[in-house]
Design brief:
This protein has about 900 residues and is mostly beta strands. Among the domains are: about 120 residues, no CATH class; about 70 residues, Immunoglobulins (Immunoglobulin-like); about 100 residues, Immunoglobulin-like (Sandwich); about 100 residues, Immunoglobulin-like (Sandwich), CATH 2.60.40.10. About 10% of the residues lie in helices and about 55% in strands. The protein has a 24-stranded antiparallel barrel. A seven-stranded mixed sheet has the order 9-10-3-2-1-12-11, sandwiched between helices. It has a five-stranded antiparallel sheet with strand order 4-5-6-7-8, covered by helices on one side. Strand 31 and strand 32 form a beta hairpin. The longest helix is centred in the first third of the chain and has 22 residues.
Length: about 900
């Protein structure tokens, strides 16, 4: 309301009048004959003028406050100011005093107009004639008195009729705004924001909405071995379920491959195992069966399976990301400088950039039940990789008394059509203990095809977690982790294999692993420190490795120092270190030198250096040099990548000692919106994601639906807690893309988006469920509101004065209350936000009675007419007078 008023034409004129015209008039009047005073004082009587000033408080904002001006001094209305600052205050019926408490109940105050004193806490402050001004409707205190008594330092500007208020105390209004912000942030994290409109999922029978494509061509001139890899992925909905198909093609020629014709027969340009297709139907509201999956399924298997599984899967596990307590460290290596995104159950959890050695780490939140963990890797030359695994995080907890199951069955594409099936069940026995079990079957195993298993996850203390599982005839294992308050973490892994088992192809007897890690963060540097000891016991030998990793940054220089040791008797230990740095040179050039050093021979094994620079914000160029001293091979490379809005292209070339390599790459995606018949292009992956299309329109008939002839509205501003917002200035549509499917997202529509203040949004908060591979159309009705204004006049013997702080109510058809407002100090009232129709304005008769007033007319009818620019009704004037008692 305040913002709408300030942006209106009347509001702008009032600000100009208040800042320029009124001060000039008051200044002229102060030099002429004194007018009628509002307060009594000795001769010569000071002249007071009742008006309003704009009070600004840092951290809160500003508001119009009733005030009295005397020359260059300002007196602020105690009730108006304290109400704005959310300070408890109560005025007596005849405005003899104002009492309450300041910030806390231990600091009561009383402003006594009759006796001219202020009691604040235990202190009594007498007031002189320049500290207080009293009227029939309010008590005004000078800015100096507010500072002396309450610590509210006020700087009054006569030129602009404004007051800047400062204080060292945490005012209730500031505390309330801070707490509200904290509650709002917590609600955002928990997904508990309150929405005006909730739009659920939809399941169309057939629709194709997204497509990804990529091409990578490689040439090796010396061997004439050229190959091209092409990927095309389509995403849509079939029979109400999410459908993703990814086709991969490799163009190999027999003469280009350095192996025999017999080996070539195993290489297929269109290998079935490299193709991906999956159909998934989701209904998170059905607690018995939430997901049905068919096609290439992902299953955490006990047996060693390295080929895709084609089959079906049924589960009551929801797709939503359910947090639990604690976290689990997930770390690995990729290429240096690559961006790594972590997805858990299709929800983006975190992202990071690999350090100079390619090391990355995530603190994966422990989640309820089994989770699909997906990693996406983005390289500086436009490369893109992804790895989707059903990584069974060892600590799987369920809420109390909740039961979850996953049943899978299919055929393994291993050339033998092996049949695989698995049933896993978990139950939350208590808040600290989750029990599970099931059975797995693989037909290709000669002995022990059927593998029953049991498992348990226990939170022994808040920081001590234990996970165990046992598979009959295969293995038993346990994992124990403990994290100290200082973030020092210990992890102990132990696995014992059944002798003669055939499910796992390794002939291990035992596996032992111990990890100790701790992050160090200070003002000058931050490091992640990890020591890993790993031992594998086989029937005839013992293989032991150790790794000490230090990864972090010192003074904006990225550092990765990894030391490896391999112990395999009777050979001596093999120990070497890899040091990688990343720092910025002048000219915004990123340098990444690397060095490998072997301690056995006290010699350098290899060295490498790369220089990279971003060009024009969308391009990246780099050059690299490396030399391996053991093999005496040198490589020099150069690369270029550029990001267009519709595609990302890259080029790289390497010149080696014995071979040269050229690589060209391009990738992109498109999103088709079948509702608006529009196609959008992107250089990012779109398959498996979703989005929304917002179409704002003027709701001319007020039915909240877009009817023929209702025009689009320009200027809508939105905010979403995820995704990318793309605004089309030509057709006013707003697209939010790259949202995770099946999740509810909160979209906020800015109320003050439009230049015309009459255009308003009645329901600015939307919660929408994202459909996979689809752009969901949301038509946003923009209502055209009217404005009404008037004045409440106090009739006297000689003049008419306005009355402030009286309530004016507005009724639809004289029966339904739709809005309220209050009069200002001069009796003026204004309200913006009434749709077209017949209304009645009423003043509060009970409030008038308490003030000892009476009105000749307590209600006035008026009509808000339909106009594109909004209707304005002015001149609703109420007249009241004092009740004369005998």
């Amino acid at each position: 309301m305040i913002a709408a008023y300030e942006n209106s034409t009347f509001g702008r004129l009032w600000r100009i009048t208040r800042m320029i015209v009124i001060p000039v008039i008051l200044g002229m009047l102060s030099l002429t004959v004194p007018q009628k005073a509002l307060a009594i004082g000795p001769e010569p009587e000071p002249v007071f003028y009742e008006t309003s000033v704009f009070v600004v408080v840092q951290g809160i904002g500003g508001a119009e406050i009733s005030a009295v001006i005397n020359n260059d001094s300002a007196y602020l209305s105690v009730t108006d100011l304290f109400n704005f600052l959310k300070i408890k205050n109560i005025a007596t019926p005849h405005m003899d005093s104002v009492y309450g408490f300041f910030i806390t109940e231990k600091a009561p105050f009383l402003i006594d107009k009759k006796n001219g004193v202020i009691r604040y806490g235990e202190k009594l402050t007498p007031l002189n004639k320049n500290d207080m001004v009293g009227t029939e409707t309010s008590i005004y205190l000078s800015t100096g008195c507010l500072s002396t008594v309450f610590g509210l330092t006020c700087q009054f500007s006569f030129r602009s009729l404004s007051v800047k208020l400062e204080t060292r105390q945490e005012l209730p209004a500031i505390r309330e705004m801070r707490q509200e912000m904290m509650r709002k942030n917590i609600s955002r994290l928990k997904g508990e924001l309150k929405a005006d409109t909730i739009i659920g999922p939809r399941h169309p029978m057939f629709s194709i909405g997204t497509a990804d494509w990529s091409v990578i061509a490689t040439q090796r001139p010396e061997t004439k071995a050229n190959d091209t890899w092409v990927n095309l992925a389509l995403g849509g909905m079939v029979l109400g379920g999410e459908t993703n198909v990814s086709l991969n093609y490799n163009n190999y020629a027999q003469s280009q491959l350095p192996f025999s014709h017999d080996t070539l027969s195993a290489v297929k340009p269109f290998d079935q195992r490299q193709q991906y297709y999956r159909w998934r139907y989701v209904n998170n509201d059905n607690s018995l069966l939430r997901q049905v999956i068919a096609g290439k399924i992902f299953v955490p298997s006990i047996a060693s399976i390295f080929d895709p599984i084609v089959g079906v899967q049924f589960t009551n596990s929801p797709t939503s990301y359910r947090r639990s307590y604690g976290s689990y460290t997930l770390s690995n290596y990729t290429d240096p400088g690559w961006t790594v995104e972590l997805y858990v159950n299709n929800a983006l959890v975190d992202y990071t950039t690999a350090d100079a050695a390619g090391f990355y780490t995530f603190q994966v939140p422990l989640v309820y039940g089994n989770s699909i963990v997906k990693l996406r890797f983005y390289g500086p030359w436009g490369e893109e990789r992804s790895r989707e695994e059903n990584i069974s995080i060892p600590f799987n907890f369920l809420p109390l008394h909740e039961f979850e199951y996953t049943a899978s069955a299919g055929v393994v594409e291993d050339g033998n059509n092996s049949f695989f099936s698995r049933l896993q069940m978990n139950y939350g026995a208590s808040r600290k203990l989750t029990l599970g079990g099931g059975v797995e079957y693989l037909s290709s195993i000669t002995k022990g095809k059927l593998m029953p298993f049991v498992m348990a996850s226990l939170r022994m203390t808040p920081n001590l977690l234990l996970s165990t599982d046992y598979t009959y005839g295969v293995r038993g294992r346990g994992i124990l982790t403990y994290r100290m308050p200082s973030n020092l973490q210990f992890e102990l892994y132990y696995t014992r294999y059944k002798k003669g088992q055939q499910a796992i192809i390794y002939n291990y007897v035992e596996e032992r692993k111990f990890i100790i890690s701790k992050p160090f963060i200070t003002k000058g540097f931050s490091f992640y420190n990890r020591l890993t000891l790993n031992q594998i016991i086989m029937p005839d030998t013992r293989y032991t490795t150790a790794e000490w990793l230090i990864s972090g940054a010192v003074a904006r220089v990225g550092v990765n120092l990894s030391t490896y040791a391999i112990f395999l008797k009777p050979e001596p230990a093999f120990i070497y270190s890899n040091l990688a740095l990343t720092f910025r040179l002048p000219g915004a050039i990123i340098a990444t030198p690397q060095l490998q050093y072997q301690y056995n021979t006290n010699s350098v094994m290899a060295m490498r250096c790369e220089l990279g620079k971003y060009l024009f914000r969308h391009g990246y160029v780099n050059v690299s040099y490396e030399h391996n001293y053991k093999s005496d091979i040198t490589n020099v490379g150069v690369g270029l990548r550029y990001d267009f809005a519709f595609s990302q292209i890259g080029f790289a070339a390497w010149k080696g000692t014995n071979m040269s390599t050229l690589v060209e790459s391009a990738r992109g995606s498109l999103i088709y919106d079948d509702k608006t018949r529009s196609v959008g292009f992107s250089n990012r992956t779109s398959i498996g994601t979703g989005g929304v299309v917002l179409v704002p329109f003027l709701d001319l008939n007020g039915n909240d639906r877009r009817d023929p002839g209702e025009p689009k509205a320009y200027g809508l501003k939105v905010n979403c807690n995820a995704g990318r917002i793309l605004q089309n200035l030509h057709d006013t549509t707003i697209r939010i893309v790259n949202l995770d499917p099946y999740e509810y997202y909160f979209i906020e529509l800015a109320k003050n988006s439009f230049e015309n203040v009459a255009w308003q949004i009645k329901k600015p908060a939307i919660s929408v469920a994202i459909d996979p591979n689809q752009m969901k159309l949301i038509e946003v009705p923009i209502s055209i509101m009217g404005e009404v204004s008037g004045k409440l006049l106090l009739e006297g013997q000689d003049s008419q004065n306005g009355m402030g702080r009286l309530t004016v109510s507005f009724y639809k058809n004289d029966t339904t209350l739709v809005a309220r407002t209050q009069t200002e100090s001069d009796g003026y009232f204004d309200y913006m936000g009434l749709p077209p129709g017949a209304y009645t304005a009423r003043i509060d008769a009970v409030q008038l009675q308490k003030q000892g007033m009476k009105a000749d007319v307590v209600k006035l009818p008026f009509n808000i007419r339909f106009r594109m620019e909004g209707d304005v009704v002015e001149g609703l004037n109420f007249r009241v007078r004092k009740v004369v008692t005998e």
